[in-house]
Amino acid sequence: MKAALDGQPNVFVVSLGDLGESKDCNDTKQLFSGTTECFKLAREYLDGFGRSYNIVGGNHDLEGIDEFGTDQENLAVFLDILGKDTPYCS
Predict the structure, then answer these.
(1) 88 vs 37: which has the higher pLDDT
(2) Is 20 among the domain residues?
(3) Which domain of life is it from (predicted)?
């Protein structure tokens, strides 16, 4: 993806959320969306653009119900891994 943006000035990437699948993608018998592994994979992918980016959280991005006890814990990991100070985008 980075190659497609090379030579393009002033490119800013925006993800419109829903970073993962709401199903078992890695044979863990857990939903993948909203998990630590999902956030790490999304971060790796977005970093691959080699450009600044931001993420507008989608309605499936806090579905780590098998990993996290609360939405607050899920959100904290989302923010930490994806390097966001706030869940909002401006």
Answers:
(1) 37
(2) no
(3) Eukaryota
13-51 burial string, b = 16+ CB within 10 Å, else e? eebeebbbeeeebeeeebbbbbbebbbebbbeebeeeee
Structural domain of 58: 29-85
pTM: 0.81
In a domain, 22, yes or no: no
Residue 28: the pLDDT is 63
Backbone phi, then psi, for 30, in 5-degree steps? -130, 155
User: Where do the H-state alpha helices sit in 1-90?
Assistant: 2-5, 36-47, 71-81
Residue labelled with tokens 């790490």: 40
Tokens 């044979």 -> residue:
27
- Residue 14 maps to a domain: no
